[in-house]
Amino acid sequence: MSADDQPELMNSLGPTISRARSGSADSMRYAPSLDGVRAVAILAVLGFHVMPRVLRGGFTGVDVFFVLSGYLITSVILHDIRNGNFSMREFYLRRIQRLLPNAVVMVIVTVLLSLVFLLPSMAVKVAGHGLWAISNLSNVYILRNFGGYWGDLATTAPLLHTWSLAVEEQFYLAFPLTLFLLSRRTNLLAVTVCISLASLALSIYGTGMNPAATFYLLPTRAWEPLFGAILATYRVPVTVDQPLRSTKAMLATEIIGWGGLALIVIGFLFITEGKSFPGTIALVPAIGSLALLVSIADGTTGPARLLSRPFPVLVGKLSYSLYLWHWPMIVIGRTYADLIGISQRAGKLIGLSAGVIFAVIAYRFIEHPLRQRGPGRRRRLLVLGMAFATSFLVCLAVSLRHPVADPRGYFDRPAFYGLLYSVGEKSDVPLSSTTRYADVLFPERPRQPEVWRNGGIIHSWGSGNPRVVVLGSSHALMYGRLIDDICKQEGLSVAFLSADASPVFFPTGVSYSFPNLALSRDFDAARRKWLSEWNPDAVIVIERWDGFAGDRADFNRKLRELVGEVAPHTRNVILFSQVPVLRLGEKVNLREFATWYLKTFGRLPKIVPDANEPTRKSSITTIEALTDDFPKVQLLRVDQQFYLEDGSVRFSSGRSFLYADDNHLSDAGAELVRAICTRAILATQLDTKKPAEPGPRWTEKGHARKLTSRNNTRSLAGEVL
Q1: CATH architecture type of domain 418-717
Q2: What is the rounded distance in angstroms from the CA atom of residue 700 to the CA atom of residue 14?
């Protein structure tokens, strides 16, 4: 994040200004404490990226940068306007010289390192992002291409951090002209306040409606630099010839400064990432930054003296370069370490070290020399233009590549037809455009708005109402084609009431498939309605249990409440165990990784389960205890098919690739459990020919009372095929 917004005219990184009152030119002087503010912000961001659990709100250092940037840029512009020497052309040339050289070199180096250390498809994505980054549209690119349940994870993008640079540059593009046009009007402060409050209101509203767009786009983040602009417009920072102030005024300024610093630190420690940010909680670091700036403007307060010490000043001078270089190196180091099977933490620390080294070198030999405005400026601008063109051409050339996940044809192309069985909203992001699904075959999914209101996806392979009903999240979808085919062969009508990114438990809650609470409640009501009307022979429940089983007591409660909702309306409840999740996570195209590893090391990789493996084992124990209490409930151990003798995961079989991503089976993977699924479904039909067994008693709320008898355990374990 760049907050170095003052011109090289001052030969400094942090000016303070005074308002023209007598018609004479104002003096501008260097305030080292402003570099100290930058140091606080950048160290918080670095700490968050390295130790997110310790400094979980360190990302709000970006908000500190925003406020500081607005304060500095407004101070500089107003100073030039009031002295009659403001030039829009000169302003933008200074911005280009200040911000572009280091950034374009960082993008080039990041793309080249991605080609060397990352998978080919990853490098192509990085290069495509680089085109948007050097065009100052990275925030738009991220919003369009990352996130969503099936999309790439933004945190795996080496150029993710450039979103904030894009917001600042877009602000710099629009605000100076506005400021210039309003500068001679007496209502400049009032207009700035009104625009800032409108942006803040939009941010608070948008955080609840569309948190991603609110986080990344200028209209909902502009209020933060505008807060700084308000301060620069209203407050007259003290000049070299500062007047004497009363003891009360000095004490008040001191208290305001320490209070502001405390608010900033509180934000670093206690604000967490999530859909509630920015919203009103972003006012904490923003107001803290304002208060701190008020206090340190004259350089005499305790916070000003603290932030003017040599170390924070040095870090502050390097802050822009540190911000540019640290994140790409962390991501590349962490990803490469994961690919070759060493600790991600080690890769992250190596990447951070490399980022700091690159940052110092870039500051010394690129950023500082090319931002000078003296003799040779035209030559420096020419060099900068050539660097920009080179960066653009490198990114364009790499982004136009079309890497093939499996160029030597080691495996058949994996397919995932499970999306045909989802009743949730259809994603607008083409799955083939994401890294992890670039080679996966997906069917064209028709739009079926709110199909769950009519019973979901129903295939009437038999007569009458559905005899088998499938509930669950995307983990239920991955068995959809298999279960549908089994029911077709056996002449059983089947209904799917499953939705990606939506938990099977009641209440469903707001999710990607049900973006507001009203839809979520309607979906739950529909599930209850259809189960009570159909009274199917079997309800199959499939979920990613490790997302809930961390708190064993709460997980047990949720399971029992779910059974309490479902069991009164069916003769059998079949719960699938969860298959192992691969340690590589969602950032990697698995088939591409396997072929890359085979080509590099001459053997297929051994992929172990991720760190949540104990939680998945615990979930099985909890479900088995549930089957002891409820004779209608059985556990289907589909997970046993996917472990090898050494504890690693069976991700391929011959030419078949069994996983679509790190936690979803491909259609070929689901086929491995066809035999035990068929037996389980047929067993429910045999039950229909017998007198109904007495089931558990139920409370008025529909929750099961624990039975005293514990001899009805039913668990179906699959043998290795």
Answers
A1: 3-Layer(aba) Sandwich (3.40)
A2: 68
